[in-house]
Amino acid sequence: MSTYEIYIAYLTIVRKEIKRFMRIWVQTLLPPSIIMVLYFIIFGNLIGSRIGQMGGFDYMQFIVPGLIMMSVITNSYGNVVSSFYSTKYQGSLEEMLVSPMPNWVILAGYVTGGVARGLAVGTIVTSLSLFFTQLEVYNLGIIILVVLMTSILFSLGGFVNAVFANSFDDIAIVPTFILTPLTYLGGVFYSIDLLPDFWAGASQFNPILYMVNAFRYGILGVSDIPVGYALLVISAFIIALYSYCMHLLNTGKGIRK
Amino acid sequence: MTYALEITQLHKIYDNGFEALKGISLKVEQGDFFALLGPNGAGKSTTLGVVSSLVNKTKGSVKVFGYDLDTQVSQAKCLMGVVPQEFNFNMFEKVQDVVVQQAGYYGIPRDEAIRRTEQLLKQLGLWDKRDDASRNLSGGMKRRLMIARALVHKPKLLILDEPTAGVDIELRRSMWEFLTRINEQGTTIILTTHYLEEAENLCRNIAIIDSGDIIKHSPMQDLLKTINTETIVLNLQEPLVNLPEVEGYHLLLVNDMHIEVTLNQGQDINNVFVVLTAAGIKVTSMRNKTNRLEELFVNLVTSNKTDLQGVSA
Hints:
Chain A is mostly helical. Chain A contains eleven helices and two strands; from the N terminus they run αααββαααααααα. In chain A, a hairpin with a 2-residue loop joins strand 1 (53-54) and strand 2 (57-58).
C-alpha cells in the first residue's frame, strides 16, 4: 500500500470509531459527565468546603485536574476495549485482517478513536467544572501534552485488554479491579505529602500518579512529582505498551487462529 | 506460469495438537472457477483461512498471483476478496457503510468507495436496503452483502466459503449467474460448497480434501468420467408387475411405477429401452438417482476413510 492508501485506511478506522461513540453518546458521553458533576457537588462543594486547602489551593480547585484526568483515562481505555472486543466478538475484525492494511495502522486507528473519546469527555468535564470553580491555565503546552499522552497510554491498555478478553465480563475486570483503584490512589483526591513515608513511596509505582500530577501542574502549577520525570515515565509506559500491542498483532495472539 | 493460487506443502497444527492440514499442495489457474470440496472438518475452511491470513500456518508456502504471503503479504491481499462462511460484518452498521468501510481498508478514497458500493449493491439487489442496519437483512441478503464487500476493491481472486449455505433455490441460482458473470469477466473464483450440484454446474476444476489431505485434484470433466456406475430412475406410465430381464444390465423394480437401472461405464441405456418397448412398457420420464459428483464424492471419501483405518490398524 502507498502512504496515501495507508492514510485512507487509517482515516476509515478513525471515522468509524468516532461515529460509533457519537452514535451511542447516551452510553459514552453522558454518564461520565453526570458522574463528574456529582463528584464536583459532593467532594468539591459539600465535603470540600469543610476540608479547606490542599496543596495551597481550595479543595475543589485541587481535585478538578485529577477528576478531568480520571475521565480521560477511563474513557480512552473504555472506548478501545469495548470497541475492539465487539469487533472481535462479531467477527468484523476479519474485515481488517484480510485487508492489506499494516497492523500498526489498525492499532493507530483504534488508539486515535480512544484519544478522541478521551478528549471529548475531558472537554465536556472541563466545561462543566467551570460551573463549580475557576480554572486557570498555568502551562497550556503541558496540559495538551499530558492529556494526549495519557489517552494514548490508556487506549493502548484497552487494546491489550480487548485482545485477551474472551467475554464481555473480561472487559470489565481490569477497569473495575485495577484501573479504578489505581486512579483513586493516584493522587486525584489528595496530595501524597499527606501519606506516611511508606505509602508515599509505594505511590511512586502507580503510573496514574504521574499523569494526575503532571496535568495538575499544567493547570495549577503545583505537582508532587517533577513534571519532566512524570513525562518520562508516561513515555516509557507508552513505548512498552505499544511494543507489546504490536507483538500481539504480529503474532496474531487472541485474534488469529 | 503464474497461478492465481499456489499452495505448496501447507501444514497446520492447531494449539490443541489437531493436525488440520497434512502438507497439501494445490494450484489454481488464473481465470479458473475452482471447487474445493470435502466433508465437515476436512480442512477446507482452514485452507481458506490460511490463504486469507486469518489462520497462521504451521509451515508451507502460499502464493497469490506469484506474491508470497510471507514476504509480499500486502500485494497478495490486494488481489484477494474473501467471503467467509459465517456472517462477519458489524450488525449495527448500515449496509452501505459495511461496503464503503471495507473499501477504505484497501486505501480506496471515499468518493470512489461510495461509487463502487452503489454499483455493487445495485448489481446484487441490495441498493434499496442501503440505509438499513445490516442485522435487519435476510440470510440471503447478508450473503450478498458479504459478496459485495469482498468485491469492492476489485480483486482478481475471489474466495467463497459456502456462499449459498441456507439460501433458497431461486436466490442460489441468481448468485450462480452473478458468479458466472464475474468469472467470465476474468475473476478467478475458488468455492467451497456442500451442494455438489453447485460445484458440478459452476466449476471447471476440482480438489477434494479429506482429513487434511488432498485426495483428488483434477478437471471436473475428467473426474466425472471416472464414475464407474450410474443409477437411472425410469418413471412408468402404467403400473408394472413383472420386470423383464435385460441381458448384461441390472434392473430393479422399486415399486410398480419406478424402475432403477444401474449402468456400468460404457453401457448404453438404449438396449434397456429396446427390451422395455418390446414388452409394451412405456417410460414417461427418467432422471439420475443421485447427482453424479455426489456419488463420486461419497465413494472417494469413503474409500479414503477405509484406507486411513487400514493404515492406523
